[in-house]
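JOB MANIFEST
job_type = single_chain_structure
chain_count = 1
residues = 82
[input]
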Amino acid sequence: MQNREFDRWARVRGQGMLRYVVLRGLLCYGLPAFLLMTYVIPHPRLTTLESVILWWLLAGAGYGVAMWTVQERRFRKVAGRS
């Protein structure tokens, strides 16, 4: 993690995990995945509600939490060196 990344993550983590997961996970990953998997490549056995739950909520939140965890590990590794 470079200095610029370190400073940026320090600002992002100051805003909180919930905000990060909602913005980066649900809106930036989950919503496009939902739209793609529901309307472009629809699953023959899933209803729209099931797609919302599976792709937007679960996958989006999972992605957001995973990325938060990865960035936190990188941040703490660099912060521990200082």
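[summary]
The longest helix spans residues 48-81.
The chain has three helices and no strands.
exit_status = 0
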